[in-house]
Design goal:
two-stranded antiparallel ribbon; about 50% helix
Length: about 70
């Protein structure tokens, strides 16, 4: 979240008075928009994968290909 605001970790630590970045790692808050965007990217990838499949899958029964 600090990067989205344009701040470096060092600057955020100076403002908050923390000496290590443990606080930043502990409270790594992800904006809802990032989560939504990731879901849309995954959905798009899955749709492309389904479109690439041109041949139907072969059904195997009792060791023989149908």
């Amino acid at each position: 979240m600090v990067e989205k605001m344009g701040w470096s970790e060092k600057k955020a630590m100076m403002i908050s008075g923390h000496k290590t970045n443990a606080m930043l790692l502990r409270y790594d808050i992800i904006p809802t928009s990032d989560i939504k965007e990731s879901g849309q990217q995954a959905d798009s990838w899955w749709r492309k994968q389904r479109q690439k499949r041109t041949k139907p899958l072969k059904v195997v029964r009792k060791g023989k290909v149908a």
